[in-house]
Amino acid sequence: MRAATAPGGAAAVVVADGTRPAWRPASFDRVIADVPCSGLGALRRRPDARWRKTPADVAALGELQRSLLRTAINAARPGGAIAYVTCSPHIAETRAVVGQVTAARDDVLVLDAPALLSEVPDLACPAPDGRYAQFWPHLHGTDAIFLALLQKC
Question: Has this prediction a pTM greater than 0.85?
Fold first, then answer.
């Protein structure tokens, strides 16, 4: 895992529709799935979002988020790193998505994101999801960003 996250080396960025990959499975050492979300984590910057989103919007995004995470995992080589990131604190867009996708697979490990980001205090989600990181505006001065770090087996 350290090698997959080490700085330096040659890197190429591939931009494509994650629901229709333009690459072969197991093509990448590092994959980030910065998925579309409700944006509820950016309310401090966009307070009007609370009036533009409904529970149905959050539910509708779930299948897309799960699909994009599955594609990201499939795109990683064995030993590769996958980051699932979303600008939402809503459990249906964060812990539930990662939990549902990883529970259905035996080729992925959930890494301890708060431990890997030990210089940032108070990131761990509540038990039993303490391996996921949740940034908060009032604690970290950021949007409410969620991060799960995975490793492909």
Answer: yes
